[in-house]
Amino acid sequence: MSGVQYRLVLGKKDERVDGPDDAAVVVTIASADAALDPSVAFMLGKLKATGPTGPLFDALSSGDAARRIAELVAND
């Protein structure tokens, strides 16, 4: 298990996914909250994550989470 998988929830049973299926961390955010900074969204409880917090905090601080969520939003 490695890496982070990002899930953008568009609606019930409708998600966009980026990242490996065996990811150590799975990050989920609703499309309505995707414009928020991911760190702020996490603190507000809008961005949910399962798995260890170390890789999550690395992704948030490096800007990788913001970039990958923005890519999911842009993939219309």
Task: Give structural attributes.
76 residues; alpha+beta; four-stranded mixed beta sheet; 36% helix; globular
Layout of secondary structure:
Elements: E1 4-11, E2 14-18, E3 25-30, H1 38-43, E4 47-50, H2 53-62, H3 64-74
Parallel strand pairs: 1-3
Antiparallel strand pairs: 1-2, 3-4
Describe this structure in words.
By secondary structure, the chain is an alpha+beta fold. Helices cover 36% and strands 30% of the residues. Strand 1 and strand 2 (14-18) form a beta hairpin.
Gist of the model:
This protein has 76 residues and is an alpha+beta fold. It has helices at residues 38-43, 53-62, 64-74; strands spanning 4-11, 14-18, 25-30, 47-50. The protein has one domain.
Figure out the total of helices. 3
Helix content: 25-40%
Radius of gyration: 11 Å
User: Biggest sheet: strands side by side, in what order?
Assistant: 2-1-3-4
Low-confidence regions:
none
Span between N and C termini?
29 Å
- Which percent range describes the beta-strand content? 25-35%
The number of strands is 4
Order of helices and strands: EEEHEHH
Major β-sheet annotation: 4 strands, mixed
- Overall tally of structural domains: 1
